[in-house]
Amino acid sequence: MYHFKGNMINIILSHYLSYDFCYQTINTNTMNHIPPTQQTVNEEVQWNKEKTIVSKTDAFGTILYVNDVFCEASEYSKVELIGEPHNIIRHPDMPKVAFKVLWKALKDGKNFHAIVKNRTKSGKYYWVITDFIIDRNEKNEITGYTGRRKAVPNSVIEKIEPIYKTLVEIEKLKGEKASELYFNAYLNEEIGKSYDEFVLDLFEEEVAKQKKRNAIAKRENIFKKGLNWFFVTEYEMS
């Protein structure tokens, strides 16, 4: 059992009040990109959550390809997206430390799972879980990343959103390094897992719950059909 050591985290943070590690994905070849909207609307965009959002970027995070579902969810056209940095859909509610952890794993050649809140062209939002295929050339050098994203159940969002809010508040007041230290301490002391493991466990729990709900619904349906057969039979015999 892991216990949250708040005092220890506060002591760590106090040493880094002025340190702000800026982690951004920038491609100097696309400096004339479309600036992402600064407007946010507290409204979820409507998109087909049964489908998978797919995008492909180069090693610097520049968008090379998006599927139609990506356009539907983001409200951008393919013409608007191709050649842009992927952070065009970054939502201000997302802590920068989450992207730092993500990009470090990808640059090390490791797949990574992350829960991300994205911002649409009009400022609305949508939540996704993402994983990656790492693209390599014949020399085994990383040439880009193919991201696959699915909708996130509300039960998972309810668990991850408060953590992100805390990290964003720390970043605003005390800098990204402080946020990173808090995040690492939180995962170690409170969760006892890496971020990737934490995300996967959240979804495994949700899948298990959904299977249980489906099994209960199936039993209830069988029971109702049985009752219906019983009453119909009794009626016909009377």
UniProtKB/TrEMBL annotation:
Native source species: Tenacibaculum jejuense
Signal peptide interval: none
Q: What is this protein called?
A: PAS/PAC sensor protein (Modular protein)
Where does the PAS fold-3 domain start and stop, copy by copy?
Answer: 63-147
Highest taxon listed in the record's lineage? Bacteria
Q: InterPro entries given for it?
A: PAS, PAS-like_dom_sf, PAS_fold_3
